[in-house]
Design brief:
The protein is of the alpha/beta class. It folds into 2 domains: about 110 residues; about 260 residues, Alpha-Beta Barrel (TIM Barrel). About 35% of the residues lie in helices and about 25% in strands. The protein has 13 helices and 15 strands. The strands form 2 sheets. The protein has an 8-stranded parallel barrel with strand order 8-9-10-11-12-13-14-15, surrounded by 4 helices. A 7-stranded antiparallel β-sheet has the order 1-2-3-7-6-5-4. The two termini are about 40 Å apart.
Length: about 375
């Protein structure tokens, strides 16, 4: 029987040395189990907080292959996956689970996760809501989000006060929503790029003291399709705008743009994560990514399985209850939030999750309930 160590012995690494953490290698392996020859192509790379392995093989009885390679004691079966706990403990300092989908027959993708992903929870606040920031800190929130368009005409003094209070509390600003006001219409074509760039230069500069690196492009009023324009034309114009105008300006300031899906009642353009991802792929710029808003995504028909597939395209996350009219999560939403977070973890996302919606009732009670539900849902 072939052991784990011999399986990975002799791999040709893309780095100078093959390390037990299994970083960045590709190898073709040939070996025999019970006189049956097997050829396996193994690829491994590290991305952010996890390691990922792909095993490409033509093995029609994968369970037989698994049982031959890994000792029975190290094999656990759950939710149609094989989890090789002992293997990952031996071969990756960062790994906490290794799973190969049993239902797939020719390509087996595996993710080594670190310890349970610990997302940061934050809340959207207004520029002058210093008391709200203190309340968030008191209740266990670790960061905040505020609007970008509101900074256009904001006093520098007010921005400085918020930055100082946030620094005092150790509460960084992680993102800005509301990138464009309705007055900055986005689908006019290249002739509008100088005006749009001038606006971005102004607000990006004013936002700099707050330190956020993610800007959310929801802005339904600014991006809506005007009468007489087809969706196809709007899509082409928006892709060009993101690629040729927004991305270069954001790059200058070290910013990532998260395109936000919005429910049809708020905007007639980009109503699901799926639609947003089609645009993001067409733009093909590393700083044009996805904002997943649980409220809008659910109403737009996005499934947890689809969200899990978006991986490193997710720049930021908003959350509110789709079944309670955009209220902050409470116990009634627990199972739904748990499923949503499972999708985010499967995607490899462990960044901030912002409450965006409404408080129904006492502020302290709503904030306390929301963070409790989210922490337990992890």
């Amino acid at each position: 029987m072939l052991g784990v160590t011999s399986l990975f012995a002799g791999m040709s690494s893309t780095s100078s040395k093959v390390r037990p953490s299994l970083r960045n290698f590709s190898a073709g392996l040939q070996f025999t189990i019970d006189r049956t020859p097997f050829t396996v192509q193994v690829e491994c790379w590290k991305y952010k907080q996890y390691l990922r392995i792909s095993i490409y093989t033509i093995i029609h009885d994968f369970s037989q292959f698994v049982n031959a390679i890994f000792p029975t004691s190290s094999l656990q079966v759950y939710e149609n996956n094989y989890a090789f706990c002992q293997f990952m403990k031996k071969h990756s300092k960062t790994a906490h689970s290794l799973a190969i989908p049993a239902e797939m027959w020719y390509t087996y993708d595996t993710i080594f996760f670190k310890e349970k992903l610990k997302m940061k929870f934050c809340c959207c606040i207004n520029l002058n809501a210093l008391d709200r920031l203190e309340k968030l800190h008191e209740l266990g929130y670790t960061c905040y989000e505020t609007g970008l368009a509101a900074l256009e005409n904001a006093a520098e003094e007010d921005i400085a006060k918020l930055a100082a209070k946030a620094e005092e509390l150790g509460m960084p600003c992680v993102s800005h929503n509301g990138m464009f006001p309705p007055s900055v219409t986005l689908l006019r074509g290249p002739e509008s790029y100088p005006e749009i760039t001038a606006y971005m230069e102004k607000v990006f500069s004013k936002a700099k003291p707050l330190g956020a690196k993610v800007i959310i492009l929801g802005s339904g009023g600014a991006r809506k399709i005007p009468d007489g324009m087809t969706k196809e034309e709007a899509t082409e114009r928006f892709i060009a705008l993101c690629r040729d105008c927004i991305s270069p300006c954001a790059e200058k300031y070290g910013l990532t743009i998260g395109i936000e899906e919005l429910r049809a009642a708020e905007c007639n353009f980009i109503n699901s994560c799926k639609e947003a991802m089609e645009i993001i792929r067409a733009v093909n710029k590393p700083n044009i990514q996805l904002l997943v808003d649980y409220f809008h995504a659910a109403l737009g028909g996005d499934t947890n399985e689809e969200i899990a597939s978006y991986g490193d395209a997710i720049a930021h996350v908003h959350i509110a209850s789709p079944k309670r009219n955009r209220a902050w999560p409470n116990e009634e939403d627990f199972e739904d939030v748990k499923g949503f977070f499972a999708a985010l973890k499967a995607a490899g996302y462990d960044g901030p999750v912002s409450l965006e919606g409404s408080c129904v009732g006492d502020l302290t009670e709503c904030l306390t309930t929301a963070i409790d539900v989210m922490q337990r849902a992890l």
